[in-house]
Design a protein that fits this description.
Blueprint: H1 16-29, H2 39-45, H3 54-70
């Protein structure tokens, strides 16, 4: 079964988390199963905490994609 994934991208402080929370709230109201992976929260949970250089970003995004696939 293919499950849709929505990946919001944008500049820091551009409202991605606010938009994601609003979408999740609407889906919750409709009883649509969903999960929100906030990159800041995931970064805080990982040890060592991923950095922001290009190689570490790529590895972190691969980690997020893997988590989404597991869910």
């Amino acid at each position: 079964m293919n499950t849709p994934v929505v990946w919001l991208t944008g500049l820091p402080s551009s409202g991605k988390t606010t938009l994601a929370r609003a979408v999740k709230h609407r889906l919750d109201l409709r009883k649509v199963p969903c999960c929100m992976l906030d990159s800041d929260e995931v970064r805080d949970a990982l040890n060592p905490r991923p950095g922001y250089d290009p190689a570490e970003r790529a590895a972190f995004y691969a980690t997020l994609a893997g988590l989404a696939a597991l869910l």
